[in-house]
Write a sequence for this structure.
């Protein structure tokens, strides 16, 4: 009986993250908070898709990039209108892709997505 040995090598996955948060107290009643986040990955192979015999030659997620920035204004007041108020502005941008190539095919199919959100 033949013996089949399956081996999944290292994916070589790596990710870089940059995070920062800054709080500035203008007074006891007014604060400004700034937040920044950036994340970047390399290709991420999908070994589970490659295990399906006779279907895929390549299947991986492309690099993912994520950028987010926020600004929060905090206000405190002892008036009857409000006691504690927070106003938030935010931006986020995400880029990612899915790539696959069928077995015995030279055509690589790529699906690229980019989403931007503003609050």
């Amino acid at each position: 009986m033949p013996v089949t040995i399956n081996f999944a090598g290292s994916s070589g996955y790596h990710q870089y993250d940059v995070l920062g948060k800054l709080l500035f107290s203008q007074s006891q009643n007014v604060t400004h908070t700034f937040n920044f986040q950036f994340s970047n990955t390399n290709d991420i192979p999908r070994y589970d898709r490659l295990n399906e015999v006779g279907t895929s030659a390549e299947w991986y997620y492309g690099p993912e990039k994520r950028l987010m920035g926020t600004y929060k204004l905090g206000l405190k007041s002892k008036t009857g209108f409000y006691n504690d108020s927070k106003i938030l502005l935010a931006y986020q941008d995400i880029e990612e892709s899915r790539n696959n190539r069928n077995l015995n095919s030279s055509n690589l199919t790529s699906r690229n997505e980019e989403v931007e959100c503003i609050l």
About this structure: The longest helix spans residues 47-50. The beta strands are 15-25, 30-41, 44-45, 56-61, 65-76, 84-102, 108-118.
